[in-house]
Specification:
The chain is mainly alpha-helical and 394 residues long. Helices cover 80% and strands 0% of the residues. The chain has one domain (3-378): Growth Hormone, Chain: A, CATH 1.20.1250.20. The radius of gyration is 20 Å and the shape is globular. The two termini are 35 Å apart.
Length: 394
């Protein structure tokens, strides 16, 4: 297997785990209708799976830095798919918590290992695009997840969640076929990591600043993915399938934007791409929160998809460049925690929505978008060969 195929195969794995992670938000309205949960209770399921990811994802990142375990990505996909497939068969809330915890573990395990594999096989002059392709896989999974979930559950009832096992098994079969080829490529080019040639120092201060931006983006992304369908039903009386379609529009635009952002990062620079993305995000969240028009709201969903993901690959690549000695850890934080941190606060936002209506949630997200934009201006650039004592702008 040519090393350039690795990013595509890992993108497929990213698709599989984020396909299951993205379906949870679309399943929530059906769980609310079936089990009579409140917004806060339903959002607790999002919190549980993301809390698991937040706690264990850095651990798996550290383990990926110490020992390369490419076979684990297959296990990750099967855990994520199996956990979500069981949701439709479980009647109790605590049983659902266990199911989404299993899904969260699978998702958390895959991100650092798969991203490290992509980094290792990427050329230094196309790091952004390689990570953009990998990110596209995850965003494509988020895009198709809600549509498949809404369709399967509408036709088959809650037991339609069983369909989420299909992509996991397909990926497992592909990994069985290509695993030995990857091992051979890795042994032939043991130091062809995209960060090879960087000085050995890690920029923990810069990574901390990036972490603040990641946290803001995570809350925004999780807030929109969790409450968008419920908000559209509450404010505009849309049906669940129509709401799921608009959620998929949000994810779909984001998926395409991750490819665009990867190319833009290679051409214009990582920091400029990140700043541009955050500025778009501010405009989108503010106008979405203020809109009383379904047409304008739909337009802002497109803008939000752009703003949320144009800077995604730049964010991940910068994190890897800040921590060249801890690429797995950096990947776990930037790729995984960029989604899971926000999910922990989902019940808090859900409580506010129960008391004051869901519109207040989106005003809060607009405020966080402004903070993320401000942080994008102070996050330093880094180029190959640049020491920790120097940080010139791109």
């Amino acid at each position: 297997m040519n090393k350039h195929y690795v990013k595509y195969i890992m993108a497929l794995g990213h698709f599989c785990v984020d396909f299951t992670q993205g379906t949870l938000s679309a399943v929530l309205p059906f769980l609310i209708a079936s089990h009579h949960y409140s917004y806060a209770t339903a959002a607790s399921l999002v919190m549980v799976t993301n809390l698991v990811g937040s706690v264990i994802q850095p651990v798996f990142g550290v383990l990926a830095d110490k020992i390369d375990r490419p076979h684990m990505v297959t296990v990750c996909a099967l855990l994520a798919g199996g956990g979500m497939a069981s949701v439709g068969f479980i009647p109790s809330f605590w049983g659902l918590c266990i199911a989404v915890i299993i899904t969260g573990i699978g998702v958390a395990m895959l991100h650092p290992q798969a991203a490290r594999m992509v980094n290792r096989m990427a050329d230094a002059n196309n790091m952004g695009m390689s990570m953009g392709i990998f990110s596209f896989g995850g965003n494509a999974g988020f895009t198709l997840g809600p549509v498949v979930a809404a369709g399967a559950i509408t036709i088959l009832g809650l037991k339609g969640t069983l369909t989420f096992l299909i992509p996991a098994f397909v990926f497992a079969l592909i990994m069985v076929l290509f695993y030995r080829s990857y091992e051979g490529e890795a042994k032939m080019a043991p130091r062809e990591e995209a960060t090879a040639g960087l000085p050995a120092d890690d920029w923990w201060g810069a990574f901390l600043k990036l972490g603040v931006l990641i946290t803001c983006r995570s809350i925004i992304f999780s807030g929109f993915s969790t409450f968008l369908i419920l908000y559209l039903i509450e404010e505009f009386s849309l049906s669940k399938p129509a709401g799921s379609a608009l959620l998929s529009l949000y994810f779909g635009i984001g998926a395409l934007s991750s490819l665009l952002g990867g190319k833009l990062a290679d051409v214009s620079g990582l920091k400029k791409t990140l700043v541009f993305s955050c500025c778009i995000l501010v405009a989108g969240t503010a106008l979405f929160a203020l809109s009383d028009s379904l047409a304008l709201t739909a337009c802002m969903i497109v803008v939000l998809g752009l703003g949320s993901n144009i800077g995604y690959s730049a964010m991940v690549t910068l994190g890897q460049l800040y921590l060249p000695n801890h690429i797995g850890l950096a990947s776990g934080v930037t790729l995984g925690l960029s989604v899971s941190i926000g999910g922990i606060l989902a019940p808090v936002l859900g409580n506010l929505g129960d008391v004051h209506g869901l519109r207040i949630v989106f005003f809060i997200l607009a405020g966080l978008a402004i903070l993320s934009m401000l942080m994008s201006f102070v996050v330093p650039s880094r180029s190959k060969g640049q020491s920790a004592s120097h940080s010139d702008e791109e």
